[in-house]
Design a protein that fits this description.
alpha+beta; about 10% strand; two-stranded antiparallel sheet; about 80 residues
């Protein structure tokens, strides 16, 4: 099996991140249309939040871009 290049892995990660953002955006929009509260974590506890109060999570998801890097396996991991 051919191993993926770094560029291919980064492109895949970007596609996955965009799909996740689009999914979150769709869920928030659906809840706003239907008026149903969203289940979210606030202060380490699960709470139901009215859809009109949900604005921050979408922007947080959009801005929380982490730079992921691959780490080569250690010798112990390679021996398995």
């Amino acid at each position: 099996m051919k191993s993926k290049t770094r560029a291919e892995l980064e492109a895949f990660a970007d596609q996955a991140e965009k799909a996740l953002r689009d999914a979150v955006k769709g869920v928030i929009e659906e809840h706003r249309r239907t008026g149903k509260p969203l289940a979210m974590m606030r202060g380490g506890k699960a709470t139901l939040v009215p859809p009109d109060q949900v604005g921050l999570p979408l922007s947080v998801v959009a801005e929380a871009r982490a730079d992921y890097r691959t780490v080569p396996p250690t010798r112990k991991q390679r021996k398995k």
